[in-house]
Amino acid sequence: MQPDLSPEDAERLDQLLRAVELLDPDAELPGGADDATIEEAERKLGRPLPAQLREWSRTVGGGAAMLGGNLRPYALVKTRHVIGPYVATARNALRSREWFVPEEVVPFGSDAGGDVFGIWAPRDEPARPLVVLIGAGDGDEDVASCAVVGEDLYAFLQGWIAHYVWALEDAEPGGQELIDEVQEELGLPLDLQGVPEEMARSAGEHLQKVLRWSSPTIEPIVYDPDKGWPLSISDVREQAEAQPDW
Fold first, then answer.
1. Which of 22, 52, 157, 201 is the most buried (most CB within 10 A)?
2. What is the pTM of this model?
3. For residue 38, what is the enclosing H or E element?
4. Cα–chain-centroid distance for residue 242?
């Protein structure tokens, strides 16, 4: 039996679920993984699921694109009519394609460009549950291809959804109203609400500001069009393990 979420995390999850319901009013929540599926995923992973991921998967599930394809949470295990990757097997599947995903990372989703999101969750040692973006490629421990995009899963989702909801501006009826409702529900400050071009010089700058708002303890994210993401896996490991307050 895994421990329940803390009261604070349970409240944060409820806030995220309200935002998801605004994005998809016809969604029936909870509609994700049942206990048997969670136990199967943990057997295949060889470790417990991080608590935040377990409860997000239990309520929202995975396998479908959100935010115009800019967030695609993985289903926990292989399921009929749900395309992979899957949380339980994603790390091995990615490594078989020469994509460097370290043992400490539990992949849980991807973005529109195919970059992978994972939670830093070592099997036996304490570490900050940072959300790391791992870019495509065949890097190794010391090749820069990563960024830390959240101080934990719920902080990452809060910021990522608050930013990328702008992608639905022209795709959904009443798109601007939807943007306002979702960003307000997530508590985004007024000076960051709206579409990126109104709030910052570029969508990338807006994303950085929103992620720093939702995860104030992470370092600034600097993406170089020529060099890519700034951190190596070794850099992420150092950040995750160097913090005294787990």
1. 157
2. 0.91
3. helix 35-45
4. 22
